[in-house]
Amino acid sequence: MPKAKTDQPHRRFPCTACGGDMRWTPQAGAMVCAHCGAQSSVEMPAQGPWDVTAIREQDYRTALRASRETAQEVETRVSTCPNCAARVEVSDTDHALECPFCATPVVVGSGAHRQIKPQAVLPFTLTEREAHRAMEHWLKGLWFAPNGLKKYASASRQMEGIYTPYWTYDAKTASQYRGQRGTDHTTSVSDGKGGRRSSTTTTWRRVTGQVRLAFDDLLVLASESLPKRFTDTLAPWDLTALAPYQPEFLSGFRAEAYSIDLETGMEEARARMDQAIRAAIRRDIGGDHQRIDHVDTEIWDVTFKHILLPVWVSAYRYGGKSYRFVVNGQTGKVMGERPYSAIKIAIALILAALLALGLGYVYDGYIR
Fold first, then answer.
1. Residues 6+ apart with CB under 8 A from 6
2. Within a domain: residue 23?
3. Which domain holds residue 362?
4. How far, in Å, CA of 234 to CA of 25, rounded?
């Protein structure tokens, strides 16, 4: 079967008015010409611009058997950072860049990579200026940060818009289980000193049953360039705003190629499914305590999507070390790394010790 042709993610979108470059602009929610300011909307499938029914799920097992023949793929030019291993898609005109995740200079290679094409994209809604404001607000709340950090990080660094890769998984499950239900019984018994005390005993009864769960859009990060605590903190995402993938949305931004493949992502998704299934079994067992002895789960109708979610990233070097800020490009939620000021911590410890001594002196005088 011939491979489906796909659009290149970094192709040029010329303005029909002046021939300049059109780019997706969050503030306008449209393509805007960088030269003359002309605007145009992104042409979407006939189902409607934000109709998630236009976003097709792909069959997971079919994709594993013959991904190149059955799953839509796209060939991209990818540069790998030698420091943090981030894989960022680059255009044909890029020859050198700075890694947006750790600020390391990167020489762009010439290698091409084939990957499953994204089915959907969540377009940026926050502008770079709005992301800067969110970052500055977060910086103001930092304790024990060096005095120069806020000024350096907020004023001297631009933020770069990155589309981060994720997998979503859908599945239906039916789980047969064997377990035990524990029921507490409280009675009043002698305490051996002429009084009474409460005594609780638990009786156990064997139970069997079945729970059925359906999972929809279980989100799994497909990148290793950012610590998972970063991306977990950026959640939640409003996936109802997903749009069918169009390369226009990527114009003016970079896209990160996934480094966690479809099957590895499913391993994490399945672990989270199993956790939810065990919680459902405990609820089904009921009683005061539950024991799960055995679970046999059948899973079917497994589908997936490769989607891109928007993140503003600022990487900077301070005191010889690399630090990162990330901002959810949809909600403005912030997560970042920060250095600590040894001087401020020392001053705080001295003040705390003086305060403790003062309180101790006052208390000692009061006792006397």
1. 72, 73, 74, 75, 117
2. no
3. 340-368
4. 22
